[in-house]
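Key idea: predict the complex, not the pieces.
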Amino acid sequence: MTETLIPMIGVITDIRLDTPDVKTFRVVGRDGKKCFSHLPGQCAMLSVPGIGEAMFSITSSPTNKDYMEFSIKKCGCLTDWLHAMEVGQEILIRGPYGNHFPVESELKQKNLLFIAGGIGLAPLRSVINYCRDNRNDYGVLDIVYGSRSKDDLVDYREILEEWTADERTRVHLTIDRPQDGWDGHVGFVPDFVRELAFDTDKTVLLCGPPIMIKFTLQKLLEMGFAKTQIYTTMELRMKCGVGKCGRCNIGSKYVCKDGPVFRFDELDELPDEY
Amino acid sequence: MRKLSSDRMSELFERLDSLCPLYLPGEKDGAVSFVRYEQGVDYAVGALNTVRSAKDFFFPQVENIAAFRMTGKKIEILENQNGNEPFVVFGVRACDAASFSLLDQVFLSEPVDPYYRDRREAGTVITVACGEPDTSCFCTAFGIDPAEPKGDISVWLTDGFLYWQPRTDKGENLTENLTDILEECDGGEIKSYQDTIKTIANQLPLANLNLSYWENTDEKEIFASPVWDEIYKGCLGCGLCTFVCPTCQCYDVRDFDCGETVRKFRCWDSCMYSDFTRMAHGNPRKTQKERFRQRFMHKLKYFPENNGGLVSCVGCGRCVRSCPQGLNIVKTARRVSDD
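Result:
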C-alpha cells in the first residue's frame, strides 16, 4: 500500500432499507469484483468527493467473496448523502483498516455470546456470518440483539430466516418498549442479558451505543464473566486510518490501527477517554 | 571540515541556488521565516529561529493529494502531480533538525507516507549551530546539542568564517560541487566557539527540565492528575502552539469543491480544536481540559510509549515565545510532575 490516502472507485450494486434510518449498501469495484479482502471486524473508509469521508465497519463476512456490505445509519452529512444514493452510484473506498476479532485464534471452538444494540449489530454481523460459514469451528452461538422498536432491528429478515435455522444458534431479540404485533421480549439489553443467565464459559462480543456497552459490561461482570472474556469494537473520529493523523487515540493506542477491536482488560490499561 | 570567509557567503548561496532551489531564513515585516533565495537580498541567517518551524519543507501546511471529477453517478480520479524537485534548506537549527527524526518516526513507519518520504528524499538540510541561544530555548533537555547540530551538513558561523561539515552522503555530494569555494581546514578551529555555546546552553533557565516523573509514572495516573483541572483554564484553544510546533503532525484530510473538480487535500490540524474529535454521536474530548491534556500527554507520554522512549519535543521554545496566555510545555510538564 503506497498511496495510503488515495481511494479506489466502488460501485453501489444494491441498497436495502433495513430500518427507517439504516440502509445496507452493497459495494463492488468497477470490475464487478470485491474491492479487497478483509477480516471480521475490520473497517473501510467510504467517501463521496466534496461531501466527506468516514470510517465504517464492514458488515458482510469475509467468507463472502463477491462483494462487501455496509449497514449505515443516517446521522450526519456523509451518511445523509449515502442514504440519498441510487443503485449504480460510484463512491470512493479504501481499506481494510484496523485489527479484527480473533476468529482464527481465541474465538475458535468457543461458545460465543454476541450482544448488540441498534446499529451495533453492523460489525458483529460480519463475525456472526463468518462463524456460520465455518460452523464446525465454533460452539453454540447466542445472539442477543435489541433496538428501540421492532422496526429498528437491522437485518431482521436474515435473523429470522437464516440465523434461527441452525440448531446451535440461538437468537434473543428485545425491543425497548411494547409495540403492537411484537410478542417477543421487551426491555433494555443489559437487563435482558442478566435475565437470560448465560453460562460464564462463553466468550462475549459486545457492540452498541456507549451507554449500552457500559451497563451491559457491568451486568456481565456481576454475572461472573471476566474482562478477558469480553471483546468490543470502538469508534472514534478518523481521517487517515493508519495511525498518523493523530485523532483517534485512546491513550497511546490508535483505534484505527491498534483497534477497533479491544478486549476489556486491554481497555482497562488505557485512560478512560472514549 | 571546510571553511569560507564570511564576506563570501552570498557567493555560496548563489552557487547553492544554481544547483537547486535554496531556502534560507529571511526577515519580512519583522518576522523571520524560510524564504526562497534571491540575489541581492539580505538574509537573516544569524537570526536564532524562524517563527514557524522548518516542518513545512517535508510536511507542508496544505498539500493536494488527489482530485476527482463527478459526472452523474460516475467518479473519475484525476492524477495528482506533486513535484518533488531537489531543494536545499540552509539555516535549520539543531532543534528543528531533531524534529525531522521525530516526524520520520510517524511518517516513515509502515505504512510509509509517500508525500513526506518524497520530500524528505528531495531535500538537503544544512543546519547552523546556535551562537546565541535564547532564554526560551531548552533543546539540551532532550539531549540535543546546539553546538553540534545534525542534518546533512552542519555549519558554524563564527566571526570571520563559515565552517562547513558534511554528515551524510547527500551532504558529501553537495559539498563536491563546492570544493572550489570551500577550502579545507582543521576542525579544531571551531572548538572554542562550540565551548561558548555549551556554556550558554547549560545556563538557560528552562534547560534543566526534568521529565523523570513522566518517564516513570503510569499513563493512567498522569491522565487522572487533578492538576489538569486547573492548568488548562488559561488555554484559548487557538492552536498557535500546534501551528508553530516542529513536532506537531496531526493532520486533516478534506475536500475542496473547485466547481469542475473536487480537490482532496491534506492540511495541518490541531488537537486543541473542539471539532478535532467531534463525531455525529458526540465528542470524547468535550472541553478544553481534555484537549489540552491530550496535547501534552501525547508529546510526553503516548509518543514515547510508541517510539522507544522518544519525547515529542525538541525544546525549540516556540510555544514558550508564542502562547498568548503564557502556557507552554515546560510549565505544564513541571506543574503536573509537581517539580
